[in-house]
Amino acid sequence: MYNNLMDNDAQAKLKRAAWAEIDLSAVAHNFRALRALAPESRFICCVKADAYGHGAVPVARTLLSAGAEALGVATLEEAAQLRGSGISAPVALLSAAPRANAADILSLGVTPVVTTWEDARLLSEAVQSAAQSAPAEIFLALETGMGRLGFLREEAALRDIERVAALPGITIGAFFSHFATAEEEDQGFALAQIERFDAFCAALAARGVTAPQRTMANSAAILNFPQAHYELVRPGLALYGLYPAERLRAKVELRPAMRIQAAISYLRRVPKGFTVSYGKRFVTERESLIGTLPAGYADGLPRALTGSARALVRGHSVPVVGAICMDQCMVDVTDVPDVREYDIATLVGEQGGERIALEEIARGSGTINYEAACRFGQRLPKVYV
Ligand SMILES: *Cc1c(COP(=O)(O)O)cnc(C)c1O
Description:
By secondary structure, this protein is α/β, with parallel strands linked by helices. It is 31% helix and 24% strand. The chain has twelve helices and 20 strands. α10 links the parallel β8 (213-217) and β9 (232-233). The mean pLDDT is 96. Bound molecules: pyridoxal-5'-phosphate. Pyridoxal-5'-phosphate binds next to α10.
């Protein structure tokens, strides 16, 4: 959109010379690529955490028009944001909501993941006192190895599930579980989880508790375990063109949807022996051209990358020098021919055939691409292309 130089229009519009560029056609492409792998399943597309930093509402609209059947969020606030923007598609609430919020679950029309008898009982009461005619749909969480939410497969819990199934005003839309290791090379534990899930569902059926759908697969399981697609899959990360593990790149061609851009808003020639940033950890060893980028760790560029971060300027890889500040960082562009103020530096993504992967940022700061994407989404303005 801004080519190499950030122009005046873009500056005036964004009010910042740094932004996250989100490619919605990549999101649609990734959705279609996943759908081709799980053609029999309905899709709950996870747009929690502001669509992993990509912007929940534009991403949700893109996914729904590409054919997604439902959306997944983590909080009632996220559900309210979707509803407030006019999205009426089914929304699943994938984390346990506070018990006191049964009325909000109903008014927002979301499908909660239920993991205790008490939650189910309060929801049933709320349905009755709202004099709602249609029953509220829930996903019944079954513990199979994630160790996070879900009824255990033991006698007391099974009795609780029978009572949940008998509650007025509630219907179990799906048996639900979650993988702990679906991206790992050693598939043993994930396969055991699938077996446990199947056995759990069978044990419930034997007691007369049934559900029309089952759901277990996250992105990694969509790629690795076709036998766990069931009726409903729940991709998140892969929709954004990111892989749960490097090894899984061979399974499907995904396109990263996020590019982090910042214009060199200040550029100057400095002498040898010039110190840069807090702690003067970088000292020029020659006369240098140092550019300042208005993006820092509060925008998602981890301070832990001090000394190892880089940027792409005019297609060249240049080092980020000195400590990464909260709102700014500096690049050494001495070796970039014709570099100018308002040249656009790419901190994540492709420029002129070079690429800085989000994984490079994640690895260098001791985290995973999931977290790195969320952080870049927090403060930068988003530009949709
Ligand atoms: C976030 C989440 C997903 C999506 O996981 P990815 O690894 O991003 O595909 C699926 N199910 C639940 C319950 C989740 O919380």
